[in-house]
Specification:
Blueprint (H helix, E strand, L loop, with lengths): L8 E6 L2 E5 L5 E3 L4 H11 L1 H5 L16 H13 L8 H4 L3 H6 L13 H8 L4 H17 L7 E8 L2 E2 L8 E3 L4 E4 L2 E5 L4 E6 L8 H18 L4 E6 L6 H9 L3 E6 L3 H6 L1 H14 L3 E10 L8 E10 L2 E9 L6 H9 L3 H13 L10 H23 L12 H9 L3 E5 L6 E5 L4 H6 L22 H8 L1
Helix pairs in contact: 1-14, 3-14, 7-8, 7-14, 8-9
């Protein structure tokens, strides 16, 4: 049986100095930076926003852990790198986590355990899960102090490989895996998540994408009725149903377009010129841009198509985009506007790999969608923390894993101050200056949200409109 109080013991001397291991450090935590995340969560109010959307049928007089406390503890654990609910069996007594959740390290009750978290992940009904997903869209809209003039939303999906009998999982021949294929939507200019939707492992059809966009845009329009929205995605989102719906509802779009012989014939004069110029100049790469009007049989109309034509020593490569944006050159459409969607894939990696949102191991798709909501909440906490770092600091642009190692995984000793009822937290960190600068997180209040204090990055589509 292990004892809580162990006797000190010695290690071999180093440079004739005695080395002793003692266990009298007091209340210690290896996640001292969780207090920063707690301040970010308080400013965003995510747990308080989500909790009322889940029906709590418990007797209020017998409740130990409120729904808000359960969701808060789960999101803080995910942000700290504990993606499994069973990690809370150990974290529930951690003094740093207890303090972050508003409980005293000694006299306060322990946090919720894994069975409690699992029950509440599986508790919401279909209607409640829909409300939770809408609440994350509301969180995104509330992250702006005022409605922006224009926003570009990137939509993409990512494979979530399953290893059990999760519902909605199907075999995807492209990835050669049995998986689900959740859709991610981001405001790439600010790195803010808009929505994450669990769905089957098959490639989405045009009708399905149209339905998701219709519900997403309707929710955003309820907050921003006059904001110009641009939808951006790769070729399998550029379906006829999606483009027609965007045109009918006043949305701009730019999608990748798969090439075919008809398109190749339309741009052949420019392509031939590029090939000849590269051969004559013996250049390693020659690139040109052009545009044309093209209409597939399923479109029932002609649409603007931009082409990037590149000749190299390996041959000719042509990439196409289709859009309803009237302004801008073909080069701007492809290089500045469309290629910027690559940043969305980096954001998906932050969500999926650095916050482990692919841990959708529940059998029920509703429970797995709840998990995606909680992981998105953890994403907001990390983003809020990063946005609060002064821009000259290297960590202001760091990935979440780096932030976690530098600012959250900090050894700390929690002790009671001489003043009655006061608890203090001492940290030993080489980046104490940054931690002190982040103290504003705890005083911002709920009115200030992720990135709201910083100037809003200009949207590329809006910037192009202003120059016309």
């Amino acid at each position: 049986m292990l004892e809580d109080s162990l006797l000190p013991f010695s290690f071999p001397a180093v440079d004739r100095k005695k080395v002793t291991a003692a266990f009298d450090g007091g209340r210690l935590t290896s996640d001292g930076g969780v207090m920063l995340l707690a301040a970010a969560e308080k400013a965003l109010g995510i747990a308080e926003r989500l909790a009322p959307l889940i029906t709590d049928r418990r007797n209020p007089r017998l409740v130990t852990h409120s729904v808000a406390d359960i969701l808060r503890a789960r999101m803080l654990a995910i942000a700290c790198g504990y993606e499994d609910a069973d990690d809370l069996d150990h974290l529930r007594t951690d003094p740093g986590f207890k303090l972050a959740c508003g409980r005293l390290p000694d006299s306060g009750t322990d946090l919720c355990s894994q069975p409690t978290v699992s029950r509440w992940e599986n508790a919401p009904s279909l209607r409640e899960v829909v409300r939770l997903t809408y609440a994350m869209i509301d969180t995104y809209c509330a992250s702006y102090q005022r409605p922006p003039q224009a926003v570009t939303l990137d939509i993409d999906d990512t494979p979530d490989v399953v290893h059990g009998h999760q519902q909605l999982s199907l075999f995807n021949a492209h990835y050669d895996e049995r998986c689900v294929l959740p859709i991610h939507v981001y405001d790439t200019a600010t790195s803010r998540p808009v929505a994450v939707l669990l769905r089957t492992g098959t490639t989405p059809s045009g009708v399905e994408i149209r339905g998701h966009l219709r519900r997403l845009v309707r929710r955003i329009r309820s907050h921003w009725p006059n904001t110009r929205l641009t939808i951006r995605g790769d070729s399998h989102y550029g379906r006829a149903e999606v483009m027609a719906w965007c045109e009918a509802n006043g949305l701009d779009y730019i999608f990748g377009l798969a090439g075919n012989t008809a398109l190749d014939r339309l741009v052949e004069p420019v392509a031939d010129e590029v090939r000849v110029h590269r051969a004559q100049a013996q250049a390693p790469v020659v690139r040109r841009y052009c545009e044309t009007r093209y209409g597939a049989k399923s479109w029932h109309c002609q649409r603007r198509v931009g082409a990037r034509i590149e000749a190299t020593t390996q041959g000719l490569d042509i990439r196409y985009v289709v859009t309803n944006i009237a302004g801008g050159s073909a080069e701007w459409l492809y290089d500045s506007l469309y290629c910027a969607r690559g940043q969305a894939e980096n954001l998906i990696k932050l969500h999926k790999t650095q916050l482990a949102s692919d841990r959708t191991s529940c059998r029920s798709p509703l429970a797995n969608q709840v998990r995606l909501v909680l992981h998105t909440g953890a994403y907001w906490l990390m983003l809020k923390l990063r946005d609060a770092i002064p821009k000259p600091q290297p960590l202001a642009t760091a990935e979440f894993t780096t932030l976690r190692m530098r600012l959250i995984k900090i050894a700390a000793r929690i002790y009671r101050d001489r003043k009655p009822g006061a608890d203090s937290l001492r940290r030993r960190a080489s980046r104490g200056g940054i931690v002190r600068q982040l103290r504003t997180l705890s005083s911002t209040g709920r009115a200030v949200t992720a990135g709201a204090c910083a100037p809003q990055p200009s949207d590329p589509v809006n910037r192009q409109r202003q120059t016309q």
